[in-house]
Write a structure and sequence with these properties.
This protein has 70 residues and is of the alpha+beta class. The protein contains 2 helices and 4 strands, in the order βαββαβ. Strands 2-3-1-4 form a 4-stranded antiparallel sheet, with helices on one face. InterPro entries: HMA_dom, HMA_dom_sf.
Length: 70
Amino acid sequence: MATTTEYQVTGMTCGHCEGSVRAEVSQVPGVTGVEVSAQTGQLAVTSEQPVEDAAVIAAVDEAGYTAVRS
């Protein structure tokens, strides 16, 4: 059963920002879907099994932004 975890991302301002976050987070093992909005700062990560928050936060950090689980 798929699970969705939501995070709040700070620092995104445009579609390019969304793309950077989407690209990094989609590489996290187990992630099957990523929805991200620069306008709201919301990041929704879908996976078949629960994914480590630290892995998602590290991926967002790699993209140049900051995330916290919301």
